[in-house]
Specification:
Elements lengths: L2 E7 L4 H13 L16 H9 L2 H8 L3 E6 L11 H21 L4 E6 L9 H14 L3 E4 L19 H10 L3 E3 L11 H18 L3 H4 L5 E3 L10 H10 L5 H4 L3 E4 L5 H10 L5 E2 L11 E2 L4 E2 L3 H7 L5 H15 L4 H11 L1
Parallel strand pairs: 1-2, 2-3, 3-4, 4-5, 5-6, 6-7, 7-8
Antiparallel strand pairs: 9-10
Helix pairs in contact: 1-4, 4-5, 5-6
The chain binds zinc ion (ZN).
The site of zinc ion (ZN) has 7 residues, from strand 1.
InterPro entries: ACMSD, Amidohydro-rel, Metal_Hydrolase
Protein name: 4-oxalomesaconate hydratase
Pfam families: Amidohydro_2
Length: about 350
């Protein structure tokens, strides 16, 4: 069984983007009411958008299921006001729900949250509850920087976030720490902002007792953990120097994915981080598309790197491909039951 824990619906039918354009244009009209989702997308359009893209890659690469969430760079929490983010989250999450309903074996759903910089998390908590309890979602993406590139909000370990963590624990769902676009021209979104955020989030967590307060909270840091595995010695040393617990304690609650797009990077990740903390992922149809001329295969064909990694036991490989995902996302149980009965 192979579960890809990190895919975005980057190929959604154009009506979604058109709605977003009209929604944000409305913000510029003085006195105009907010534009709630008003678009229609047919089932065949959804099927077509996936069959040629994500589903084709799943089949080619032997991936059984992808945990799918809305396009991360389009979350753009800095745009407009809390109502803007709420309407946009509804539009995107409802579409993900339709994908998971049309393809209950090939996709499970993770939601975006209607965060808005400078505002509280009540709407995010309500949307998480709606998605998990009413729509069967199994987790959420949490933007640690809803300003989208300016980092002027509280760190992930601030009590500002605690009500959301309480709800995540209650619902038994993890979050992937995932930024969106970057309004700051210093930080290219996928080349700098994403990896900066992964790295910054890890350091925030290292400095805090958030997992003392929430011992069962689970956070996935994507893109291989940013710069963290490469600088593992620095983080171990900083923790020691500052009287913080060893990293092994932090790694009871923190997981990295395998969205690292070359063999040496994956080899380093596997050597430094325990296989119990690594979840298979490709972010296919995401940040980096195209073929690596050095290998002849797509950069994001991460299964090849895991398969080729030496010194990885079959047990460890199985954990990375599926076992860890089933543990970190307990609500995958319903999908696993469907998968098992379909296989018989
Ligand atoms: Zn992503």
């Amino acid at each position: 069984m192979i579960i890809d824990c990190h895919g975005h619906y980057t190929t959604a039918p154009k009506a979604l983007d058109h709605y977003r354009a009209r929604q944000t244009a409305r913000l510029l009209e003085p006195g105009a009411p907010p534009l709630a989702p008003d678009f229609h997308i047919g089932d065949d359009e959804i099927r077509d958008s996936l069959e040629r893209n994500q589903l084709r890659l799943q089949r080619e690469r032997g991936v059984d299921m992808t945990i799918l969430s809305p396009k991360a760079s389009a979350m753009a929490h800095h745009v407009g006001n809390p109502t803007t983010s709420l309407h946009w989250a509804h539009a995107c999450n409802d579409l993900i729900h339709r994908v998971a309903t049309l393809y209950p074996l090939q996709f499970t759903a993770v939601c975006q949250l209607p965060q808005s910089p400078g505002h509280g998390l009540d709407a995010s908590i309500a949307e998480l509850e709606r998605c998990v309890n009413d729509l069967g979602f199994i987790g959420c993406n949490l933007n640690p920087d809803p300003s989208d590139g300016h980092w002027n909000g509280p760190p992930l370990t601030d009590r500002y976030w605690y009500p959301l963590y309480e709800k995540m624990v209650e619902l038994d769902v993890p979050a992937m720490i995932h930024v969106s676009c970057s309004c700051n021209p210093n930080f290219h979104h996928t080349g700098a902002h994403y990896l900066n955020a992964d790295t910054a989030a890890f350091m925030q967590l290292l400095l805090s007792d958030v997992f003392v307060d929430f011992p069962t909270l689970r956070l996935i840091i994507p893109h291989g953990g940013g710069a963290v595995p490469y600088h593992w010695g620095r983080y171990r040393g900083l923790a020691q120097q500052m009287g913080r617990p060893p990293l092994s304690q932090l790694m009871r609650n923190v997981y990295f994915d395998t969205c690292v797009y070359h063999q040496p990077g994956i080899d380093l990740l596997l050597r430094v981080v325990s296989p119990e903390n690594i979840l298979f992922a490709s972010e296919a149809f995401g940040a980096v598309q195209g073929v690596d001329p050095e290998t002849g295969f797509n950069f994001d064909d991460t299964r090849r790197y895991i398969d080729a990694a030496t010194g990885l036991s079959d047990t460890a490989r199985g954990q990375i491909y599926a076992g860890n995902a089933l543990r970190v996302y307990p609500r995958l149980r319903a999908w696993a039951a469907r998968f098992a009965s379909a296989a018989h």
